[in-house]
Amino acid sequence: MMLSIHKLSKTYTNGIKALDNISLEIPIGLFGLLGPNGAGKSTLMRTLASLQMPDEGKISLGKIDILKQKNELRKVLGYLPQQFDVYPKSSAQDLLNHLAILKGVTHKKERKELVDALLMRVNLIDQRKQSVKSFSGGMKQRFGIAQALIGNPKLIIVDEPTAGLDPGERNRFYNLLADIGQQAVVILSTHIVEDVRELCSNMAIINQGKLLYAGTPQNAIAQLEGKLFERKIQKNDISSYQNKYDIVSSRMIAGQPLIHIHSDVHPNEGFHPIKSNLEDVFFKIIKA
Ligand code: ADP
To answer: Which residues pair with 195 in a beta bridge?
Structure first.
């Protein structure tokens, strides 16, 4: 099973080109779609979920033509949209049961087993009688995954899932996604580089609707191996360093800027080499 995206383009009526000739081949496993805010991630996700049409291009999931066979796609799709936070006051169990009815699981006993299995899988079985409204952010996201898993989907789309989660919740959510990624194509959109580095076997970087990188996180990191250097500088010196060097990132450490630069040769001047990392690669690629 492969998700194939072929020459996808979309321009909104306000003239913004949100997708610009995107082509990608995505195998089973966790795929990270990385890009800054406004890059076009949600547009791509909604298009893959057949919720919105592109101007041009084709998408197929195995034998399903996503843009032409929407009903076929929806039978094998699990979608966790951004800000999935509009819940009635029902308990987790009742809500899942209801959603399973909507997804066509009509047999009562089968449905009960499915709902219990899903609650176990996302580790919410003990909280099944609590209202989803009262859940923490992480619990809501895990519930969101449980509903997305009804019907044993082959394509699972999760849009910015870890925004607002604390580190513990994020970890639990990561583990759950890694587990799901063993049997399905899971696309995870995020602007958090850490999510992709920790989780994804393949990734893409997009910006302004354009595909800037597709491949493994390791290969992306290898591109800058031996070419990154750092040093602490004085605050007032930032602009002179900006003129002289290709700064990829800058962070404040105890009130002093620590800059990372890209350079083919060792720049001396108090710089020392650092290991290549996905965060710097990401900034370098979207700046280019
Ligand atoms: P991301 O998910 O990466 O933040 P989006 O796909 O939401 O990016 O947006 C890509 C670009 O398209 C942005 O410039 C955004 O303002 C614009 N955009 C998104 N949705 C619409 C819309 N319905 N109408 C007009 N412009 C839109």
So the answer is: none
